Each structure stands twice: as structure tokens, then as C-alpha cells.
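Attaching the record inline, Q. Sequence:
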Amino acid sequence: MDELSAVIVPLQFGEAMYENLRRLKALNKQYTPVRINEELALPISSESPSFHSIGIPYRIERVMFEHSPPSINPHRQLKEVIQEFIPQGMEHAFEFIPTKWERLDDLILFPKEAFTQPIWGEIIQDKNNFFEQIANVLQGRRVGRQQPIANDTIRSSQMELLLGDSSWVEVKDNGLFYGFDACKVMYSSGNVTERHRMGSLNVEGEIIIDAFAGIGYYSLPLLVHGKATHVHACELNPESIKALNWAAEKNDVSQSITIHEGDNQSTLPNLRGIADRVLLGLLPSSEAAWKPAISTLKEQGGSLHIHMNVEEEHIEQWTKDTIQTCLNYAKSDDRDWRCTHQHLEKVKWYAPRVRHVVLDVSFSSSNSAS
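Structure, as predicted:
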């Protein structure tokens, strides 16, 4: 065992901090994290890093760690098992073996182009056997292939199930359970840091509106970890509503969430003046819901979390314009507000030069603002 610098966090933030350390290239992967009572110690490669911007409570201490066991290379294992199916003379098929995939519960989900090249039609004679071998080597039971998101108002998933009888998936993230039909509902693993950030907010006592609730990406962390009093969840997709009802019951918060079915252009006006905070988590743009969302905030003001895809060089100007637009909407609603706080979170790259960002902005009335 070796004594190393470690970031120590409460257990409920362990997964989130691990992911952030990995993303910042500060995680020492040669050693295994250690649980210390109700905390998790994560080995770091830097002696004096700063992670304050992550928004997770932590401290740095010296801790004894054991070396991690030798890693198993799943890419090599996948190549070896597929090699058994490739006949002599077709070795060029190796260049088409997928190099990335996603795991959802026991479902191995490949990108949309995986195994679609013409050569696979000649190689894959027994589809079930081929994908069973792949599932086994990647320690799964089902195999799927992503498809382009449907061009409809609810951005439906169109995943193709290649192996297995059911597309219902249950995943656990940051201590929370999510369930959904992967062939009908889109699940974004890339939003993990934002889900965890929402769970780290102190929203105890607040009434929250989630204007694009989905399967509960952000509603559930705010209820379970943030201790919100109640969430009003607006959602259009019937399949997402089924998933959200399941998750609310599974996470024991059914009594603290009200689901408003249908277009939020119709449901938000019925929630006027009740909210402390509104989530606007739709991509590529949530702008259509800004005005009705403003009207749902309490008279004294409140906070918005505005999701958007923005070109990197335009982020600063977009932030200023968005705040001004929201103030204009408030003024047109006879609310004399000012902006009292703002924060911009860069969640991930959505496309070259385009970032998924979240603008946190708080408003208060001129009478109550300090």
C-alpha cells in the first residue's frame, strides 16, 4: 500500500467527483478508491489541485491506497471474439469493428453505424450467436444499435434492439434509479455532470417547475438530494411520463412530484406565480418556454436554469442577451425585477465549436434585491 494525496467526499458525491477528476485528468488510476465510513477517498495525481468550481464538498488528505488490479482491455476482447467469425480473405472487416459503445444496465449500445457496412452481411450468418458472443465478452445480456433521434416534437429514441426481448432499461446514477424504454425514450449519459450538479444544490423548501422533465434527469436529484419541497414536472412524451412515474415511485418521491401532461405552452400558464426555480432543459434551444417560465416564478422573483446549444465564440454575448430578454419578459408581465446572480455551466461539446451550456440566472424584485 502507498500513501497518496486524496480527494475525500461524502459517499453520495463519490460518482460525481470520480467523473470530474477523470475529466480533469487528475485521477490517479493506478490505485483503487477507498471507502472511509460514510466518505469516499479518491486518489489524485496532483499534490495541490483545486476543484471548487465543481460544486461538490470535499477536502484533501493523505490516505493509504492499494494498487488497482490489472485492467482488462474490452476493445481487445471484442476484436478477439469477432475475429472468430471473420473468414480468411475478409480481414479488412477489422477496420469496421466498433471502437466505442455505451452500457445501459445489461444493454450494450453501439453507435448507429456499427455493423452496418455491407461486409457484415456476409460475415453475420447467425445473428443471435454473433451478438450473444459480443454481449458475453462485454459482460452484457442485450445488444442495441443507436439510430438518429426521430424528427418529432418529443425527440423520440429509435434504438434498434439486436439481441434481447425487452428494451426496458434500469440504471442507477448518483444514488438514484432511472427506468425507461430505450427504443422509445432518449437517455443522455453525457449529461451526468449536470445531473450531479443539480443534486448538489440546496433547494430545501423550494417549489420547482421542470418545464421539460423527461424521465426525471434533473427533477429526481433536486427532490432526493436537494430536498426540494415539490416539483411540478411538465412533459409531452407519454413514454417519458411512464418512466418518470416509475422513477418517482422507485425513489420514493411520488408524493412530492406532480406531472403535468402535454405541451408546456399549455401547462405552464396554469402554474403562474408558484415557483422558486424553473428548469428549462431542452436542446438545442429552450427559448420558446422562457416567457411562460418567467410567469411561473413568484412575484418576488426566482431562478432559471436555461439550457442551450451555443457556438463557443458567441457564449458571452448570448448570456447578456438572454438575461436581457428574460428581464424584458418580466417587465411585460408587470414585474419590476433585476438580475441578482448568474453562473454559466459548460456541460459538454455538442458539436464542433458548439457547446451545451446552462445559464443559471436569479431575479428579484427591486424592493427585495440588495
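Residues 25 and 282 are 29 Å apart (CA to CA). The chain has a mean pLDDT of 90.

More tomorrow.
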